[in-house]
Amino acid sequence: MPETITFRRPVEDDFARVQDGLTHWWGGLGGEDGARQRRLLVPRLFFQHFTSTSHLAEDGTGRLVGFLVGFLSQDDPEEAYIHFVGVDPERRRDGLGSRLYHRFFADARRAGRSRVRCITGPANLQSIAYHTSLGFRIEPGDLDVDGVPATSHYDGEGLARVKFVRDL
Amino acid sequence: MPETITFRRPVEDDFARVQDGLTHWWGGLGGEDGARQRRLLVPRLFFQHFTSTSHLAEDGTGRLVGFLVGFLSQDDPEEAYIHFVGVDPERRRDGLGSRLYHRFFADARRAGRSRVRCITGPANLQSIAYHTSLGFRIEPGDLDVDGVPATSHYDGEGLARVKFVRDL
């Protein structure tokens, strides 16, 4: 019998649990430095000011098994942005990620947004395939990384990113 | 004759120049690791989605000499938040920081916000004195760091922060 997953909005006190997920759910990608980089990218401010478009998933015991941090663009009334998504690797086959994304799409539509954007690393082929399966298309870039269009120095010197956009 | 400083909203292409400021304007605080930490805290998304409450300062030659990245809380219609401020250390005596803060206060007031929040590190006595001089008061915390109230593990394990609030 599949376990029940509960979705809810994060509160500020969830910050530490999400930081823990950022440390442990990426299979050690980038070592301790990679974990620290992920943690720095999701500061507490998202759990104070953007909870109304973010989501947590918990299992039957209340353990955190997934999160999505997103927001409505303050500058562009047509746009919403997904900043960071994490799913416990033991739960990746449950469609949990997809349910988190679709909850965010619903938030964004309800707020009158017509498109959603997000990014990933050009070497993360799994993430690229995943976003494509969710209906995102890849935006043009100035690089070709093994056939994937990417934008150079997107998140700083040497940090290329693949840009995704999806209509809502 | 004092040099003219020009203020304007950032655009996405300003991202690289601000990253450069984050690298060089802190007098080497924290070494290369500290510079990288500051850069990670100000990702490109702020130059895409929150430019309408952010500000750049440039000197007469168009060189970047200061920036403020802030936003209106999406969740709390009374609140605005200042995420990161940087001023070229050669320009710190020109009142440039204060002019950036006051521009943000005006943005926030215009958007109907009644208070602004921000944080700093408890060891950064210069920043604490500076925020106090701008009318911020320190919020209570669970730590006392040499007489300064701070909140433990605020930005992650071991990263205490001083919380400021100011009425608008």
UniProtKB/TrEMBL annotation, chains A, B:
Instruction: Give the matching Gene3D superfamilies.
Output: 3.40.630.30
Q: CDD domains annotated for this entry?
A: NAT_SF
Q: Which residues belong to any copy of the N-acetyltransferase domain?
A: 5-155
> PANTHER family, alphabetically?
N-ACETYLTRANSFERASE (PTHR43072), RIBOSOMAL-PROTEIN-ALANINE ACETYLTRANSFERASE (PTHR43072:SF36)
What is the protein named? GNAT family N-acetyltransferase
Q: Which organism is this entry from?
A: Nocardia acididurans
